Amino acid sequence: MTRVIGLDVSLTSTGFADVQVLGKFSQVLSRAVTTSPVNANPTLRDRQERSRAVELRIAEMVFDGGPVPALVVVEAPAYGAKFGDPHDRSGLWWGIVDRLMRDGLPVVEVSPGQVKLYATGSGSLRGATKVTKSMVVRAVNDRYDVGPIRLRVKDDDRADAIVLAAMGARLLGCPIDPHMPAPNLRALTKIRLPEGLTA
């Protein structure tokens, strides 16, 4: 069995997708790790505990969900994001990535544009052709809410995580979406896999 995890890290709602492939059969589980909003003036302890809670929950789901993952695909930070504290977002991202890598898991990051491109065939991040979060959600439901997978999501965090895990599964030679259009597959061309893994 090949297991791939997709992570869209967020302080408020981290998207988590778990793809498990055995021969011609695949299973996709998706969840969101949510945290309560912090008060207007959180203390340093409040901020630390919030990040720690997300990190611990992700570690639990990764290591208690079946075989050791062959790959974890995490969305790279969105440096232009206008929401949340960028310092805290960065700390959470590195806390999770560091934890997984220290535990020996191969981790690869994928840019937000690559996620949009794989999902929709366009990686546009701005202007009239910008790919919105709702467009990614719609593409995920159109593609994966069919056949044996029957996966339907409403939020963009889980949708992004599913796309990330699907990209990882394809890179490892066990795609859950065997009939992807050529434009979408361009999203894979610049991904640098960890040492020892080949596309």
CATH topology: Nucleotidyltransferase, domain 5
N-to-C order of helices and strands: EEEHEHEHHHH
* CATH architecture type: 2-Layer Sandwich
Number of DSSP-assigned strands? 5
**Overall residue-averaged pLDDT value:** 89
Shape field: globular
Strand content: 15-25%
Characterization of the model:
By secondary structure, the protein is α/β, with parallel strands linked by helices. It has a single domain, classed as Ribonuclease H-like superfamily/Ribonuclease H (Nucleotidyltransferase, domain 5, 2-Layer Sandwich). It is 39% helix and 18% strand. The protein has a five-stranded mixed beta sheet. A hairpin with a 4-residue loop joins β1 and β2. α3 packs across α5 and α4 crosses α5. The relative contact order is 0.20. The model has no long low-confidence stretch (mean pLDDT 89).
